[in-house]
Design brief:
heterotrimer, A alpha/beta, B alpha+beta, C alpha+beta, A: alpha/beta, Transcription Regulator spoIIAA, 5 strands, C: alpha+beta, Beta-Lactamase, Phosphatase 2c, domain 1
Chain lengths: 112, 144, 423
């Protein structure tokens, strides 16, 4: 998986692409987010439009990141989750805490 | 109905193999699933199980690291995932729930709980010679 | 009549000046934001004869009306001003940006629910804290003692204090921020120095082989690591890896990893075993989970073989003399992810003209302005074009190519490459 970091309206946008599996980047996603928190950046949007594989590793990383961000007074929103990812969100009821938006702009606006 | 079409066997030796076999798995399940949700979740469980098997599997002579068998029978899809390697205990793993502390799962371990939540039955058998056999079954929805 | 009012004005002016002087003296003793605020409030409470005073600071990163509130208690043991009142008050100030004086707040319908709280508020006097035209906070005093209530004189006094204090408060706040940033920078620099010092200072010399390595760190060190470990006259261990995270924790992990590998290299000839031990070390080393990719290879110049194990690192290329391409991928997942994991290993034999390229993903993932990645194909092309050159030359070619590809784009990740040529 690749992570590209950018900023929009004071919110960090992480554009994720590729497979969220057991590669180094996927596994250290939570650590990446913790580094952001240490830098005072606690509002994050993850753009998942280009994720082609989403399994338990990805889910774990997402939820751990969410927990850490919330604990620091921030929040995590997801944008452009593919149909498969949304199925998992719905099924596991994670949709209750982790909201998905159709566009990155909407997710950013929801965080402001 | 042609007996052969309701069964599928795939040998996997790497994550690349798994990636290449994804379409086959989706095509097989897609013949019997009624909704895209059902298919997506089924695909996820099967890939998750194979993923774990490849990750923890050991190569044994002429065997592949992981063998996946898919069967459709009696409105259910059954996936049997075999690999050689350390034993793992599915019984110990908690059920998946939104209430739990996800920080414990940041390194993996969510796989089995997830599979258990999606599938109707998850059974693990440790056979002789370090062979693991994980059988997961999902009863499909009836046609509307 | 004129005379008395002149004298009163003078008296007032002297009083104002002495208050300002008191404040100036008090705040000159410290840079600390918290102390500065407390000092100012204390002086206000004293000179204006009130029960309580507060300074509310505008949260810099938030343009909503979220204020950061500090309360000073003097005579009464009261609790914090109720939150919703603070919000109403700050909201009013953001809108109006001028002093506010209310002597009977229960009859003022701009603010609600005040006297029922833990700290009953009856009268209030507020002045905006502005610097360079920007509102940075509010200075408030509550409950004037005595019967008169707040007067215009009081308002004038508070406004003057506010005007003088605003810049002082802002300076203290900026100083705070600067110190915090400096500390982070220093830590990062220290960590970077540690990491850079772990890297090899020269290329190894081994008979029959031309081996070179080079690493270029990004602005914020990304954690690339490589090492050459000579185990005996004809054997050399080559490691290339990428440690996750930044700062001191990453530097320490890299340090530990190197020490472990150097120790292991002398005792075991199995790459897989080395990986297992390194994996256990990293998995158990900290509470905060850390990871590292690692490619570990043992070059045996006597038998011309390269025995290796790859833990989650981009598989190196072995370019055979007949241009056949082999990826060295056998191994397992990244170090530190699973406890007790068995890593696979493999061997290749090396012939004259063979070249091995071990690289970090900082190269293949380098981006240009069009957001295109440098990629494996380009890397291979650059290498193949200059394949006849020395290992050092090949490395320089790659670095040049990456540099011109990214153009002006900042380097976001460390770039590392090791080249092994059998001559």
């Amino acid at each position: 998986m690749r992570i590209k970091e950018s900023e929009m309206d004071g919110v960090v946008v992480l554009t994720l692409s590729g497979k969220m599996m057991l590669d180094a980047k996927s596994i250290s996603l939570h650590e990446y987010v913790k580094n952001l928190i240490a830098e005072g950046k606690t509002k994050v949007v993850m753009d998942m439009g280009k994720i082609t594989w989403f399994g338990s590793t990805g889910l774990g990383a997402l939820l751990a990141s969410y927990t850490s961000l919330k604990d620091s007074g921030g929040d995590l929103k997801v944008a452009r989750a593919t149909r498969k990812i949304r199925s998992v969100f719905m099924f596991t009821q994670i949709v209750k805490v982790l909201e998905n938006y159709d566009t990155v702009e909407e997710a950013v606006a929801a965080l402001k | 109905m042609d007996e052969n079409k309701t069964r599928l066997k795939i040998s996997l030796n790497s994550f690349d193999d798994l990636e290449s076999s994804r379409d086959l798995i989706i095509e097989f399940c897609g013949r019997y699933c009624k909704t895209s949700d059902e298919l997506d979740l089924l695909e996820m469980s099967i890939l998750e199980a194979c993923h774990n098997a490849i990750l923890h599997g050991k190569k044994r002579e002429n065997n592949s690291i992981c063998e996946l068998k898919l069967l459709y029978d009696n409105q259910s899809i059954k996936a049997v995932v075999k690999n050689y390697g350390n034993r793992f205990d599915v019984a110990e793993k908690n059920e998946f729930s939104i209430e739990q502390d996800f920080l414990q799962y940041k390194n993996g371990g969510l796989g089995i709980p997830l599979i258990k939540a999606i599938m109707d039955s998850v059974e693990y058998e440790r056979k002789s010679n370090e062979l693991n056999e994980l059988t997961i079954i999902k009863k499909l929805k009836k046609k509307q | 009549m004129n005379g008395t009012s002149e004298i009163s004005k003078l008296k007032l002016a002297v009083k104002e000046l002495s208050v300002l002087n008191d404040i100036a003296t008090a705040v000159s003793t410290t840079h600390d934001l918290q102390q500065v605020i407390e000092l100012i409030v204390r002086e206000c409470v004293k000179h204006l004869n009130v029960e309580q005073g507060t300074i509310m600071l505008l949260d810099q990163s938030d343009t909503d009306d979220k204020f950061h509130t500090i309360i000073r208690e003097v005579d009464t043991e009261s609790d914090v001003v109720p939150y919703h009142f603070g919000v109403q008050l700050s909201g009013w100030m953001v809108k109006n940006q001028k002093p506010l004086l209310i002597n009977d707040i229960s009859n003022d319908n701009r603010f609600t629910n005040l006297s029922d709280g833990e700290f009953p508020i009856n009268s209030i006097l507020s002045a905006p804290l502005k610097t360079k035209g920007k509102l940075i906070g509010v200075l408030n005093v509550f409950n004037k003692m005595g019967d008169e209530g707040f007067t215009m004189e009081d308002q004038r006094m508070l406004s003057i204090i506010a005007t003088q204090s605003a810049q002082v408060v802002e300076n203290a706040r900026l100083y705070d921020e600067e110190q915090a940033l400096k500390q982070i920078e220093e830590e990062l620099k220290f960590a970077t120095d540690i990491q850079l010092n772990l890297l090899p200072k020269s290329n190894p010399q081994i008979e029959g082989y031309d081996i070179a390595g080079k690493s270029m760190p990004a602005m914020e060190v990304g954690g690339d690591y490589y090492d050459f470990i000579t185990t005996d006259e004809s054997r050399l261990v080559i490691c290339v890896g990428d440690v996750s995270g930044k700062g001191m924790p990453a530097a320490m992990l890299m340090s530990n990893l190197q020490a472990t590998l150097r120790g292991q290299a002398l005792f075991t000839a199995s790459a897989g075993e080395c990986m297992e031990r390194a994996n256990k070390l990293i998995y158990r080393s900290t509470d905060e989970q850390k990871f590292a990719t690692l490619f570990y290879g043992i070059m045996d110049a006597k038998s011309d073989s390269f025995h290796f194990s790859n833990a989650g690192h981009d598989p190196p290329f072995l370019i055979k003399k007949d241009e056949q391409l082999i990826r060295l991928s056998k191994g397992g997942t990244v170090l530190g992810f699973l406890d007790d994991y068995t890593f696979e290993e493999d061997s290749v034999s090396l012939e004259r003209g063979d070249t091995i390229i071990i690289y970090s993903d900082g190269i293949t993932e380098a981006l240009n302005e069009k957001d295109e990645e440098f990629g494996e194909e380009r890397l291979l092309n650059v290498v193949k074009t200059g394949l006849n050159g020395s290992a050092s030359e090949i490395i320089d070619n790659v670095f040049e190519a990456v540099k011109s590809f990214v153009n002006d784009m900042p380097q976001s990740d460390d770039i590392t490459i090791v080249v092994i040529k059998k001559s």
